[in-house]
Amino acid sequence: MNIGYARGNKLNQQFDFLENYEVEEIFSDKSQSYEVLQDPESDYQRLLDYTEPGDCVVIAFLEAISRDYQKLLEFFNELDELELDLIVLTSPDLTLAEWREVLLWINKNDRLLHPRLIKLKLKQEKNRNKESYSVFSRDSEAKQLYRDVLWQLIGKRKLREIAQQKSVPIETIYRIQQEFKRIKLAGILAICFFLAIATLKISENFSDNLWIQITVCIVATLAILYNVLADNEEL
Length: 235
Hints:
Blueprint: E1 2-7, H1 11-19, E2 25-29, H2 43-50, E3 56-59, H3 69-81, E4 85-88, H4 96-109, H5 115-132, H6 140-154, H7 159-166, H8 170-204, H9 210-232
Helix pairs in contact: 3-4, 6-8, 7-8, 8-9
């Protein structure tokens, strides 16, 4: 059984990741302190009580637990002792044992890596990833993949399924989803603007009272926004 967990200051983003993955339950803590994991009243402890050996804890990214390598290793050891597995949605193919090996290596070799070089590399990778999958990409295959992802998002497929099918990081699919939502919202607002003008013109034929015309216009616009945005939240 897959059990989701979210913590920190990006809960909404984490919830989006987890809800698009097959989890039975989602537990969350708002506190950004690592010590909350040891609090008997925390949702994390409730998660541990809820799970059984063989279950899998699913998190959106490692930062949901901690940015400290030692604390992450402690977290891994705790899951291992409870015979629980771990899935990190940013790298879902890695097992708990593999994550431990990665962090042990990083912890051992971290001082050999210059912080500025790490930051520059991450920035370059982020920019490359952003430019690779875009409707304005110069790469025809990347542009086609972007369109395919959009159509699948319109079809309301889960982010996890799209990422697996297209072999694209789930965070990239999430970014495309957010871009699509912004474009859709901009289109909705434009349509509402023109519909409001049309409603105002139509109301002129039934009443010369300006306040009645404005009221009809506002009510019609709010009704349109409510119905369309309610549907938009389902994406």
